[in-house]
Amino acid sequence: MSDLLSKVDTQFLGFPSPTAPRIQAGGHPCQGIYWTPKGQKPKAAFIATHYNVDFSEHYIAPYLATRGFGFLGWNTRYRGFEDQFLLEHAILDIGVGMRWLREVAGVETVIILGNSGGGSLMGAYQGEAIRPTLAGALTGAAREAYETLPKAELYVSLNAHQGRPEVLTDWMDASVIDEFDPIPTDPELDPFSEANKPPYTPEFIARYRAAQRARNQRITDWAKAELKRLNDAGIPDRVFPLFRCWGDLRMMDGTIDPSDRPTPMCYRGHPAVANRTPSIGRANNIKTWLSMWSLETSKCQGKPHLEKFSEPALVVQGTADTGVFPQDARDIYSFLGSKDKTLELIPGAHYFEDSPEVRNAAATLICDWAKARV
Questions:
Q1: If DSSP codes are grouped into helix, strand and coil, which group holds residue 71?
Q2: What does DSSP say about strands 30-37 and 313-318: parallel, antiparallel, or unpaired?
Q3: If pLDDT is split at 50, 70 and 90, which confidence band does 1 have?
Q4: Can you tell me the distance from the alpha carbon of 200 to that of 340, in angstroms, rounded to the nearest whole number?
């Protein structure tokens, strides 16, 4: 890595957003690092953002920069503040980075990199840039900025979840009985019990998947009713907890959607242990649940946005990933409206942390694909 870093330049960026000014302490809502080949100003650059995770120092940035591309690891105002997330404002923040690439950095070809949970966020950005649907919640300059979002020329999905509601629901422990108490459990749906151990039967899988969707809907029904109750009392929103969300059956049973991944395993270790600790979506404002996580109301689902695409698209999936699975990649590929689209399943874990060689192979694949289309 040190050899790579010696061959790149980095520039810290910080800007306000149309709906979020610089705070009094000095921080900007939109921040990131622009990585470039040393002494060069590339005409093609990637941009990557996540709902919550800091992508400014993204692992793949130096790998792409040393291959001749710029890379903007970009953060919206919601970096570390996932409980407050609202999609339309995050999209405006991504637009700030896109405009900087075009107007200041002189980039002519922008390549969206939708990595991990950021896949559906970047897909939503491109989809809204193609055909905006959320501008009605905005006014004035913010609405104008939203309706004129710069589009990217190419799209890369890298070990990406289908969408925020989809991944949360797939990971939910369906045996939860009480959303405000992490202990009560329905034994007939408990995926960690001796009675329901892998390999799971087709009947159990079907019941479990239906119960996961029902759990998501129960939370949505409560959220809508609670938000109305609060608003009627003059209170705009509230925070609520979310427990036990490392329960995807694929994390325990490698025969479901087979790949090279180890099982039992998730991003936090053994799922039975991880499932008892705070995890994905652990706290939410009600409006955030409805905007990000709800299967019924969220616009963070991948399919409706990806269907708008006509730009060339590449879907890359590591076959040892313990949280994104081959079928997820195949579904993303099928959703894409692009005629020029490619699906590549390659060795490697979620962030290709297996070895520098694995990361190099992934970076070479992405760059070769992009260079053929720049």
A1: strand
A2: unpaired
A3: confident
A4: 38
